[in-house]
Design goal:
The protein is mainly alpha-helical and 183 residues long. It has 2 domains: 116 residues, no CATH class; 62 residues, Arc Repressor Mutant, subunit A, CATH 1.10.10. Helix content is 52%, strand content 9%. The strands form 2 sheets. Strands 1-2 form a two-stranded antiparallel sheet. A two-stranded antiparallel sheet has the order 3-4. Strand 3 and strand 4 form a beta hairpin. Helix 5 packs antiparallel against helix 6. The radius of gyration is 21 Å and the shape is elongated. The mean pLDDT is 89.
């Protein structure tokens, strides 16, 4: 199985699919189309530039990152960050990992990198202020619409910062049905 996974990833075909397997049988779908040849060239370039060897497990983790899946192996993340192969987006438990900007430049997809890395925390706060200036008040539902990629807790943290630290907004009403407005 390791060889099958390794070969399909190294050939740029993505991950094999075992989702239709059950307790009694194994159904393996091996992709035949190359999904991302730029990923292969990128890995080859990294290996040559950094003079490193990537194990199957490391290639597998990088493929999961390329496909925007959660990665739990902290030792690989640390190594990849130090080598500049990946980037961390976010600071708290909600942080995610994406391939480095170099990959997206190499693949000609710098716009995708910008979308995946998101906008800065300060820009997010500016959007909240802009919304409140235009609409006079904002409900949590409004902010969830604006920041659909963020968790509710992340939005709450932004609002708390704007209230306590920046002293630019205030909250009116109950926690559940209340709204935010400019000071």
């Amino acid at each position: 199985m390791d060889d099958i996974f390794k070969n399909t990833i190294e050939e740029g075909k993505g991950l094999p699919d075992l989702s239709e397997s059950d307790s009694f049988s194994v159904k393996l779908r091996i992709p035949t189309k190359v999904k991302d040849k730029n990923f292969i060239f990128y890995l080859e370039r990294i290996v040559n530039e950094k003079q490193i060897h990537l194990s199957f497990e490391e290639i597998y983790v990088l493929e999961k990152i390329r496909e925007h899946q959660m990665v739990a192996e902290p030792e690989y993340k640390k190594k990849f960050l130090e080598l500049g192969i990946i980037e961390k987006v976010g600071k708290t438990r909600g942080a995610k990992y994406i391939l480095s900007h170099k990959y997206y430049v190499h693949a000609g997809k710098v716009g995708l990198h910008t979308r995946l890395s998101g906008i800065s925390r300060e820009k997010q706060k500016e959007l909240i202020i802009k919304h409140l200036e235009k609409n006079r008040r904002g409900f949590m539902k409004d902010f969830q619409d604006i920041f659909s990629e963020l968790k509710r807790m992340d939005i709450s943290n932004l609002l708390r910062e704007l209230k306590a630290k920046d002293k630019k907004i205030t909250h009116e009403g109950s926690r559940k049905t209340g709204y935010w407005k400019l000071v």
